[in-house]
Amino acid sequence: MRTQDADILIIPGLGNSGPDHWQSRWEAKLSSARRVEQSDWESPDARDWTGRIAETIGSATKPVVLVAHSLGVIAAVQVAQNLAARNLDGKIAGGFLVAPPSERAMAGVTAIDPGFRPVPQAPLPFPSVLVASRDDPYSAYHEAKDMAYAWGAALADAGFSGHINMDSGHGPWPEGLMCFAGFLKNL
Predict the structure, then answer these.
(1) What's the angle, vertex CA 68, arms to CA 183 and CA 3, rounded to 5?
(2) What is the CATH classification number for the domain harbouring 146?
(3) In terms of DSSP H, where are the helices of the chain?
(4) Does 83 have pLDDT greater than 90?
(5) CA-CA distance, 71 to 11, in Å (whole number)?
(6) How many domains is the chain built from?
(7) DSSP 3-state of 7
(8) What is the DSSP string of 87-117?
(9) Beta strand 92-98 with 128-132: parallel, antiparallel or unpaired?
(10) Are 139 and 119 in contact (CB under 8 A)?
């Protein structure tokens, strides 16, 4: 699949992705990419976030490819677990899921609505890759590996890359873009 053949939905996590974050850079670079905007980036409500993601998927005119980071991954996976009930079967072609937080980590962040827990465990109904770091402060590698296994996602080891965000030095993140290009090619 080529980027122009898909509606690429950028789904940031808690706090949104600032202008130098790799998600924002990809959104600017990829003509078919658009951000799923949330009403509250600082105190996310699970029902609002998943509703907005589902609404954006429903309005897509091409196959959807999700590009989610951190808490955005959890919200996207919650939507994906319920596609039939939302009349969205077959709309998602794939998911590129980066640095999802563990249930343990989410429980420790008071700004995160408990509705994001538990982390869904059912297989995703579309191809996906989960990119995980070995030193992510929000998810131990074995926790990310367990999520990938539960969701049927391929696991991409990002080495020691922190949370794969601006704080860990991932502005442009060319390695991630190459991984994403390889993922798209196989859809």
Answers:
(1) 45
(2) 3.40.50.1820
(3) 22-29, 46-58, 71-80, 103-107, 141-151, 174-185
(4) no
(5) 9
(6) 1
(7) strand
(8) T-TT-EEEEEEE-PPPHHHHHT-TTS-GGG-
(9) parallel
(10) no
Per residue in 13-49, pLDDT (tens digit) is 999 999 999 999 999 999 999 999 999 999 999 999 9
d(CA 163, CA 168) in angstroms, rounded, equals 6
Main-chain dihedrals φ then ψ at residue 30, nearest 5 degrees: -95, 115
CA 64 to chain centre: 13
CA proximity to 70, closest of 30, 102, 113:
102
Provide the 8-state DSSP code for 119: P
Q: Which of 96, 90, 78, 77 is nearest to 3 (CA)?
A: 96
The answer to whether residue 88 scores a pLDDT higher than 80 is no
Domain range for 157 is: 3-185
Where residue 82 falls among pLDDT bands split at 50, 70, 90? confident
Three-state DSSP string of 129-151: EEEECCCCCCCCHHHHHHHHHHH
User: How many residues does the structure list for the chain?
Assistant: 187
State how far the Cα of 108 lies from the Cα of 56, in Å rounded to an integer.
29
Whole-angstrom distance, CA of residue 100 vs CA of residue 71 = 6
Render pLDDT for 128-177 as a digit per residue (tens, 0 to 9): 999 999 999 999 999 999 999 999 999 999 999 988 977 777 778 889 99
